[in-house]
Amino acid sequence: MALPLRIRFPRPVASKKNRRRPIGNGRTVASREASSDERALRTLALLEMHGQGFQRVESDDVEIVMRHFVEEDEIEIQVRALRPKPKGRSGRRRDLHGMIETVADALQGVAYANDNQVGSVRMERVMREEERCDSEN
Q1: What SS3 state is found at 125?
Q2: pTM (global) more than 0.85
Q3: Cross-strand partners of 29
Q4: How many angstroms separate the CA atoms of 4 and 48, rounded?
Q5: Which pLDDT value is given to residue 40?
Q6: Which of 25, 92, 125, 132 is spaced 20 to 30 Å from 59 by Cα?
Q7: Which helix (H) or strand (E) holds 21?
Q8: Triad 88, 125, 133: Cα angle to 5°
Q9: Are 48 and 5 in contact, with CB atoms under 8 Å apart?
């Protein structure tokens, strides 16, 4: 298995979800700051991939670990391939990233006051019931 891709970004990235700007007809797009951060991070990732010999993961599940270093106000991102991406019972491949956004929004005001309080998120695709029990330890 390939080594993980490591990226160090000199500042936190702007949220595409929380910083939106109107473009008319009730539609919104990500803020200029979020769009700029996305382009800068993509460029940095491409440079780091080339320098580290990292190959893009085409269809396997991937793990993304992002750490925010508060004192430096920098972020570090690691990406690595996990295993072939399985299909669920319906034959669909579920978007865990989209699911966690829904869960975080649903629990805002119920389990915590604001979703900006979420300091860590762990998501994983589990293949069997036994693996679910193992991951809870």
Answers
A1: coil
A2: no
A3: 21
A4: 11
A5: 92
A6: 132
A7: strand 20-24
A8: 110
A9: yes
Q: Contact, 80 vs 12, CB < 8 A?
A: no
* Each residue's pLDDT expressed in tens, for the chain with a length of 137 residues: 467 889 998 888 888 777 788 888 888 888 888 889 889 999 999 999 888 888 888 878 888 888 889 888 898 998 888 877 766 666 666 778 888 888 888 888 888 888 888 888 888 877 665 444 555 55
Residues 6+ apart with CB under 8 A from 42: none
Pick from 91, 84, 115: nearest CA to 18:
115
End-to-end CA distance of the chain: 25
- Give the amino acid at 93: R
Q: SS3 for 28? A: strand
Residue 112 DSSP class: B
73: left (phi over 0), alpha (psi -120 to 50) or beta: left
Domain definitions of the chain by residue range: 1-84, 86-137
**Triad 102, 14, 38: Cα angle to 5°:** 95
For residue 78, give the 3-state DSSP assignment.
strand
